[in-house]
Structures are given as structure tokens and as C-alpha cells.
Amino acid sequence: MEGMTEKEQATQLIEEYAKLQRIKAADDREKEIEYQIKTTRAKLEALGIVVEDLEIK
To answer: Rounded to an integer, what distance in angstroms lies between the CA atom of residue 33 and that of residue 52?
Structure first.
């Protein structure tokens, strides 16, 4: 979170907290986790970050 303002850091952490709450409350946790992975992957790829090396196989 280097280079981010305190407000940007707070916003990022609120988003992370909300994601975790969604996973916790989901009827189908696996489906929700897959959705979170898919949306996060899309955000990273939009920034030009390759995620293949980050995947656990």
C-alpha cells in the first residue's frame, strides 16, 4: 500500500473486508470464492499484472 493516501488505504481495506464478509455469508462459498478470484484477476490484468505466476497449483 506504499504510495497510497490514508483514505485510499482505508477504501482498499473496506473493500477487502466486504469481500470477506460476502464469502463468509455465501450459501455457496466455493462459488463466491471463484467469483472473487475472477473479478480480482480481471482488475489485475487491466493493470497489466500477469497472475499466472501467482496461482497455486
So the answer is: 17
